[in-house]
Specification:
The chain has one domain: 3-Layer(aba) Sandwich (Rossmann fold), CATH 3.40.50. 31% of the residues lie in helices and 19% in strands. It has 6 helices and 8 strands, in the order βαβαββαββββααα. A 6-stranded parallel β-sheet has the order 2-5-1-6-7-8. Strands 3-4 form a two-stranded antiparallel ribbon. A hairpin with a 4-residue loop joins strand 3 and strand 4.
Length: 204
């Protein structure tokens, strides 16, 4: 069962670039040897099944849950019907352990979140949500009254390091230092760079 302490949310208004950032982070973090899972909130009715497929017919017949499995993947579909929509902790409890779980959406949850803020005309959620640990914005964008760290959208390593720290994982500089034990100077330099991120985080 997965741990909510491994969850970091990626939130923002529509078309802010949440999915693009999540995809880049998954690619970046898995390349470092970390196991990453994702969960996405859908605001509308959605279906991952296809009419005419056997699994679709099972659901049409009234099956409460339908699991489809092969030698490459499996998927579990559950019809909520009159049930209340599950909260993020309920969904995470159904997932396997991972080093990091990125939750796209779920703005109202109490887990730590990173806000993607691209349009200066939209409301900045971080001004009223204390669970937001950082704001991702275009480089050089001023954000008055924002008390949490502001990270540049193009600084993917800084964003990934913040997520790793939040989830209790080694940051990228520590991973590199572990993999390259013979290059002590490199590890020291990377650690010094990361201290800048630590100081930013401390300003929250």
């Amino acid at each position: 069962m997965a741990d909510m302490n491994k969850v970091v949310g990626i939130i923002g208004w529509q078309n802010s670039g949440k999915t693009t950032l999540v995809v880049e982070l998954v690619t970046h973090l898995t390349a470092k040897g970390l196991t990453v899972s994702t969960v996405k909130h859908a605001h509308h009715a959605f279906d991952i099944d296809k009419p005419g497929k056997d699994s679709f017919k099972h659901r049409e017949a009234g099956a409460r849950e339908v699991m489809v499995a092969s030698d490459t993947r499996w998927a579990l579909m559950r019809e909520l019907k009159n049930e209340t929509q599950p909260l993020l902790p309920d969904l995470v409890a159904r997932m396997a352990n991972a080093d990091i779980i990125l939750a796209e959406g779920f703005k109202s949850g109490h887990h730590p979140k990173i806000e993607v803020w691209r349009d200066t005309e939209t409301e900045l959620l971080a001004l009223s949500d204390p669970t937001i640990i950082a704001v991702i914005a275009p480089s050089g964008t001023p954000i008055p009254d924002c008390l949490c760290p502001i990270l540049a959208r193009e600084d993917l390593t800084d964003i990934a390091d913040l997520i790793c720290k939040t989830c209790g994982n080694k940051v990228e500089s520590e991973i590199i230092g572990t993999q390259n034990t013979g290059t002590q100077n490199t590890g020291t330099q990377n650690t010094g760079t990361q201290n800048t991120g630590t100081q930013k985080i401390g300003t929250k």
